[in-house]
Each structure stands twice: as C-alpha cells, then as structure tokens.
Amino acid sequence: MKHKLLAISIGLVVAQSQTAFAAPNGFQDARSFAMGGTGVASSSPASASFHNPALLAIKHEEKHDGFGLILPSFNIKYADDEEVIDQIDDIQSEIDTFNSAVRNSNQAAIQASATKLSGQFSKLNKDTAKVDAGLGAALVIPNQTFAVSVFLDGSVKGTVRGDIAQSDLAYLDAVAAGTQPATELNESNTNINSEATAIVGGLSEFGVSFATAFDMNGNTFTVGVSPKYVSLITYEYAANITSFDDEDVDADNYETNDSTFNMDLGVAYQFGQDKQWIAGLSIRNIIPTDLKTKSGLSMNVDPQATVGIAYTRDVFTLTGDLDLTENKAFGFEDDNQFISIGGEFDLIDMAQFRLGVRHNFGSSNGSQGIEEDSQLTAGVGFSPFGVHIELSGLMSSTEYGAAAELGFTF
C-alpha cells in the first residue's frame, strides 16, 4: 500500500470539509529548486519557460546563450513526519487480527486488539502527510531579436489524512472494557464510520514560448509569452477505513479530466553599468479554470503573479522572488505565498554551488495539516563541455525533497 500511494502521489483527506483546492504549483527545475524556488529574474534560457518566458531574450553570459536542452528535470517533495502511511497499514493489519479473534470467540484477544485499535485510531486522527512531484523538459533557442522555446512539464500533488469518527473510538473502548459485544470490523459494520478519501490532482503542460527584446536608453526590456495546452486530471475515491483499497484509487470511475488552452506572460528589465541587474515579473495561467472531482470539489488553476530581482557578476548570482498572489492549499496544508532568496557560486564554469531559503507568509486556513513555513535548499551543478548535471535538496521542519536534471548547451 505504501509504495503504491507514493508512486501515484495520492492524498487521503476529509473531502467534506473543503469545497475547492488549488492545482499543483508550477514546475521547478533543479537549479531553481536549489536556490529557494527562485527563477523569475535568474533562470537560464533553458529553464525560462518554467518561470518567466521574457528571460529567453535577455543577454546572458556566453555559456548560456546558445542552443539549450533539458532532458529531463525531476523533483519530488514528501512530508510525513507522523508516518501516516505506515499508520494506515498498521490499522488495517490490526483489524485483521481483531476480526480473527472475533471469529474464534477469543474474548481476551478481542479486548486486547480493541484497545490497540483505539490507540491507533486516536493517533491517526488529523495526522497529515503530503507528497508532490514534477517532471519537465525543454528545448530553447535564445535570441534577443526572437527567442523560441518548446517545453513540456507535469506536476502531481496530494495530501494524506484519515477522518476518525468519535463514535468508532467509543465503540472500540466499550469492546475493550467488555461492556459491548464485538462484531467483525468491515464496511457493513455500522459501528465503524471512519473513512479515508483518496484525492490525486495532476496538471501537465505543453507549450511554446516566444520572447523579444527592446532597447530602453541603453538598457534592455524584454517581453515573453507562452501559449500552452494544459491537461488536468483528478481521482477521488472514498471508502470506509476498514476496506480502503489503494488498488482502486486510479480506477476510471473515480477519474475526471479536462484539457484547455492557457497562457503565461512575462517581462524582464536588464540594467546597470555592466547589465548586472535583472528585474522580472511573471504571470502564470492568466485564464482561470477549474476541474471538478467526482464529488464536485473544484481543483482551481488560478493566475499566479511573481516578481523577482537578480544580481549577477562573473562568478556569483544573488536573487530573490516574491509571490504577489496567495495560492490555495491542496488538501490539508496551509495556503502558500512565498518570499524566496537564492545564491549561486560558479567555479571556473565547471561546477556551481547553490543555496536558498524560502518562507511561506500565506494565511493559515485552519486545516491543522502540513504547515509550510521556512524551507532550506541547496544544490550542486557540474557543467563540463556543455553538459549540465544538477542535484538539489530541500529540508524543513516537516518536509524533505530532492531534484535532479540533465541538460546540454551548445
């Protein structure tokens, strides 16, 4: 069960308590991942389509100004310090033990198992886990007159939570005390009302970015646009916690999907005596859309605006991004709105060392779930002879993540 859940990035949530949730956040390449999630003013041309298409037409250092290819870039983040998936496995195993004791009329074993189940149910209630992953690829021909990039990316996200009914705890406690007869625990047993709902939300994009540059009193102003084809998918599967089967989650009858057209817009301004400063603004998904799950929950794709600033010299880059819009939570986590800072040190164009930090100042929505607060990131890149190998990591009080990428520049 655990490995299947991780493989398809599902979430167990109390769906009845929310009416809408956000689609997965935009894809992050491995360099951005290592630099605190920044990129609106600091992306290389190869990854510009993921953050700000206007950067395609910015004059970059010679090592970045040629034909570029990312194939592929991958990231994953996972938060489960309460071991929610293991708890669900343990509960279902103990239910088997309880039912066996009932069938054998072993009263001592029944009471012992009921006591254990009551503790397991109490511990699981409101415990939360989260997992999300992304995959991207891009091909780019940067140019200040007319730059083009073709990109493909996908993200999938979920949260995990059990909804434990107080009546179940009362029943198990009564059985443990010997004051109530025991019956086998299954979905037909009206004494057990706890449920798990599995929700997975996925978004994939295929698009082409275009950008061009204009001279403004010796400085450079660029404009970029990324028309794209977007596919959305959700799975929603609810079952009594005694009979929840992860093999049923991605069945066709629990799926909804849709496809639509959308667009990203971006601008950038390069200035300074040595053109060392870049300021950027990116608006992703300018056309609001949504997709309803089987029960009518709405997975929203809303416009997301971010500003950024970057300072680059020969061997280092410092950059910062600020989300102008707050993004709704997916399942049981806080809404998120990040301020991000990142840095990169380039060692003789052969190795890059990166650090970053990002802080969520979005509002708490009272979900009592995953709290995305401050995250620390780091990474290293190797770039011999135009080959780029990127490795990155993320850590916070609740979440861990990693990213990897293979790229080429010519």
TrEMBL record:
Signal peptide (UniProt feature, chain positions): 1-22
Gene3D superfamilies the UniProt entry points to: Outer membrane protein transport protein (OMPP1/FadL/TodX)
InterPro entries named among the record's database cross-references: Put_conjugal_transfer (IPR032811)
UniProt keywords, alphabetically: Signal
Pfam families, A to Z: TraF_2
Domain of life the protein comes from: Bacteria
Protein name: Conjugal transfer protein TraF
Source organism phylogeny: Bacteria, Pseudomonadati, Pseudomonadota, Gammaproteobacteria, Alteromonadales
